[in-house]
Amino acid sequence: MSGANRQSLLMIDDHPLFRRGVLQLVREADGFEVVGEASSGQEGLELARSLNPDLILLDLNMKDMNCLDVLKAIKGRDSDARVVMLTVSDDAGDLVAALRAGADGYLLKEMEPDDLIDKLKAVAAGAVILTERLTRLLAHSMREDNKPRDPDAAGLTEQERPILELIAQGKNNKLIARELGISDGTVKVHVKHLLRKLNLHSRLEAAVWAVEKKREKSA
Asked: pTM for the whole thing?
């Protein structure tokens, strides 16, 4: 594991040149320590288990196994690792599928290097991350579904409402627990319940949904 102020990072991507370039950027940035790299999903899973990194960069498309299965396996271990998809695909279906499988962020490989590092620092600090274009894409996709119109219609409790607000601010469970004076486990239970009530599958969807609702009210 990394030191107190550095985030350990593992990258899983089967394109050697791209992987090498990103890891060079990360090594030059403050706050990160590259602890491993993998060229296949299976190797990535093994390294995720043995290294227990803080942050994992995961390519959406690899030859040896479905990367959503890799993502689900990592999240299924109840790991604290934050997983960011790094991909060429801006397809709405890929985006929604990754978020519903538990991704903490979804970034495109076409990003400028400085923007990529800024986004990685944000997710390391506990934020959920998308580019502005992907946020609009996700919001549009969600509007096509039958979602509650507001927290009242969803039946959110007085405890779930501030948690949704803090999720919308990009805060993770530990930060939410600290701010509200409750345990991480209690936050996890409330998040699970509010996602079910909102008919959403991930906290990132919840964050985008909450921001969209606030924007609609202020318009």
From this structure: 0.73
